[in-house]
Write a structure and sequence with these properties.
Layout lengths: L4 H17 L5 H8 L22 H29 L5 H17 L4 H22 L4
């Protein structure tokens, strides 16, 4: 069985980043970010509604969409390394990944979390169980 979970996470992160900075998604926001050299992209706590601020949700979403993509790339590299050396991803990682994905599915049901990452998390769990049942560890 070819272990590709790390590569799936790496490619998902790259796609997230590239889509996020493209003109089809958040390119307008990233053009504005570049004018401040990506330094102060929001007013931080001063935008927080409890402090009588007004949050710029497009800026917030664009930052986190791209940042999530960048965060998932090193996680994918780590999973790829684990698969190449140990051949099995630890159950604790898969459960943590599944919890994060389920929160994302709950918060944004019609997104890549539901249609791509949830099946991937379930695939990782099933794959691990199959490996254990076949005595591959």
């Amino acid at each position: 069985m070819k272990l590709i979970n790390g590569k799936i996470l790496i490619y998902t992160g790259i796609a997230h980043f590239l889509l996020g900075v493209s003109p089809f998604a958040f390119g307008k926001q990233f053009l504005a970010f570049s004018k401040t050299l990506f330094f102060k992209i929001s007013e931080g706590l001063f935008e927080f509604p409890l402090l009588n601020g007004v949050m710029n949700y497009e800026t917030f979403a664009s930052f986190w969409f791209v940042y999530f993509g960048l965060l998932i790339i090193p996680i994918g590299i780590l999973v790829d390394y684990i698969e190449k050396t140990n051949k099995i991803v630890p159950k604790k990682f898969i459960i943590a990944y599944l919890v994060v994905v389920l929160i994302g599915v709950y918060m944004i049901p019609f997104s890549g979390m539901t249609f791509l990452m949830l099946p991937h998390a379930m695939y990782m769990f099933i794959q691990r169980n199959n490996q254990l049942n076949n005595g591959k560890i």
